[in-house]
Each structure stands twice: as C-alpha cells, then as structure tokens.
Amino acid sequence: MNAKTTGIVAYFGWPGLALAVIAGDREGAKFHINQSLVIWLFSLLRHISCIGWVFSIFILVCWIMGLVAAINQEEKEVPLIGSIKILK
User: Fold this and answer.
1) Radius of gyration from C-alpha coordinates of the chain
2) DSSP-based three-state secondary structure for 75
3) C-alpha triplet 34, 66, 18: angle, nearest 5°
4) pLDDT tens-digit series, residues 12-50
5) pTM for this one?
6) How far apart, in whole angstroms, are the C-alpha atoms of residue 50 and residue 68?
7) Contact assessment for residue 43 and residue 55, using Cβ atoms and an 8 Å cutoff
8) From CA 77, how far away is CA 74, in angstroms rounded?
9) What is the separation of C-alpha 77 from the centre of its chain, rounded to a whole number of angstroms?
10) Phi, psi at residue 50, to the nearest 5°?
C-alpha cells in the first residue's frame, strides 16, 4: 500500500492499524499511524462510567479530523492528544 492508503486504513480500528503497520508504507504514513494509535488508546477512556460519553464524543471528533487529514494527505494533529508521540 502507498502512504495515502496506509494513512487512511490506519484509522479503521485496531484491525486497520495492524494492517497499516504490517503491510503498509510505515515510513510514509508514520504520522497517521501514530495519530490513530493515540486516538485508539484514548478511546479506552470511554469505559469510565461518569464521563465516558464525553470521551466518546471527543474521540469521534478526533477520528473524523484524522481521517479527513489522511484523505487530504495533510499532517494535522488532532486537538489535545495529537502532540503525543508513541512511534519514533
């Protein structure tokens, strides 16, 4: 897969993220793979009972922003959590 396709696939849950890491252009789409990983990890916070719905809405907005940036081949960080770098 080329970098654009890899970046788009990375935003489709953990199966897409795994596929992007295994079969995609990791170097070309490293930014979007990292953003997707951060969004996915923060989505686990939606299981907190009192404030989970707030995290769910926030994660949905971040996911849409990240996917649109990947489609447009832009490297825009998602709000608040986008500056976190897991992959070097």
Assistant:
1) 12
2) coil
3) 45
4) 999 999 999 999 988 999 999 999 999 999 999 888 888
5) 0.91
6) 30
7) yes
8) 9
9) 10
10) -80, -35
Asked if residues 23 and 2 have their Cβ atoms less than 8 Å apart, the reply is no
Alpha carbon separation from 25 to 54, 78, 80 (Å, rounded): 33, 21, 26
Task: Tell me the pLDDT band of 87, cut-offs 50, 70 and 90.
Answer: confident
User: What's the DSSP call for residue 12?
Assistant: S
Residue 10, pLDDT score: 96
Q: Are 41 and 60 in contact (CB under 8 A)?
A: no
Give Cα separations from 24 to 42, 60, 84 (angstroms).
23, 24, 22
Q: Is the pLDDT of residue 5 over 90?
A: yes
Q: Are 24 and 87 in contact (CB under 8 A)?
A: no
H/E stretch holding 52:
helix 52-71
- Eight-state DSSP code of residue 13: H
